[in-house]
Amino acid sequence: MSQEDLEKSRDGLHMEHTPSADSNDARIAEYSPAEQKSIVRKVDLRLVSTLGVLYCASLMDRTNLGSAAIAGMTVDLKLIGARYNIITLIFFIPYVIFQPPATVVLRKVGPRVFLSAITLFWGATMIGFGFTPAWDVLVGLRIILGVLEAGFFPGCAYLLSCWYPRYQLQKRNAVFYLIGSMASALSGILAYGVMQMKGLGGLSGWRWIFVIEGLLTCIAGIAGYFLIVDFPELSKNSWKFLTEREAAFVVATIEKDRADAIPEPFRVGAYLKNALDMKVWGFAWLFMLTTTNSYAIAYFLPIILRVGMKFSLAKAQCLVAPPYVAAAIVMYAQAHYADKMHLRGPVVVFNAVLGLIGLPLLGFTHNNGVRYFGVFLATICANANVPAVLTYQANNIRGQWKRAFCSATLVGFGGIGGIIGSTVFREKDSPAYRPGIEACLIANGLIIIIVALMTLRFRSENKKAEEGRKVIEGQQGFRYTL
Fold this sequence. Notes:
Strand content: under 5%
Distance between the termini: 28 Å
Structural class: mainly alpha
Order of helices and strands: EEHHHHHHHHHHHHHHHHHHHH
Strand order of the largest sheet: 1-2
Largest sheet: 2 strands, antiparallel
């Protein structure tokens, strides 16, 4: 952004003055509404679809332990006591630690090289899972996987938020996450099919799950090198994507919406100063509480269906799918109306309420039909809130490096939620898994409280801005999205 676009405010911060929503930017005006929609569709098909497929591989690779466990891994690797919980949670320690630097590297190196490289490398690591001789080796491989995957989800969230205006974003976040959640839906069915390779090459069925899914991830990583696109201002250089004029149109729409399309020079002090903004941590806590639910379900649903509800192996693998399909439908419908109505917090609260209804049905009733209905509600709650919280945060911050920092802290706290979710369901609590259910109930209750507190603050700040007593996020005219 040029220096003349910036003006020093009285408190020493830079305050950006941007065109009003009804100003006529030539880069936007040269396209008719139909042509503008065509450009956005082109971005959707290339950007959201590619990242969604890669996230499909990511989610499948980090959560396939449940399928492998009931396919014989527990017996072969002697996963007695807390060993399974250790294997699941160890992933999240490097996953949390390496996220803040990873988003900086993504911005410097570029998303095409960075995201495709880490995908290829973690796919190779996943293949190694299939040849692990002992459980402690698997722990080491999970640590490597955590390092490699640390930059992926925050990188994708950051990249998506850079491409879309605030009130077009939740639908795209939902489709991105929806494609990934389809992986969770189909992974059980895929795992059951792959298990039939048992004995081929002298490998057990659970080993083939890791090998085949790792190979698919490697293929996705190689394809991603050609298909992932750069940030909007550099996208004209992406392979067979936007023209220079189309890229300028996208940049102009972002500038018109929030004036942060072009990154300011990176300074460590300014980057870390974003940690002083309390709402950053409010969003991070929301995501941590959300992923406590989503990871608990992803890791333990096959085990709950098999051990807790006494379904056969085939049924347990296949019954994972319908709740995720339902979650995908609800997720997209919510995103459509949330974008249209400019609502974020109420959607997050609604999903948390679904969890407060569904989890007791799953944990405290005895009829399998009722318990399985509870699985539907809990799965919808856990998964629909991921894009909802991502968008809630993205709509209420400005600046490229603040966006990068917030993506890292948000998803980093999501990793802490993964640690919680991977430890609260314990084998000794079978078949009711009461402590795990109670932990997820508490998480959903806290989500409602945090959203309520943030809504009160945002209303107060918006009122001050309307009265001319405050400039929000350094931009005249910017308002918090409730």
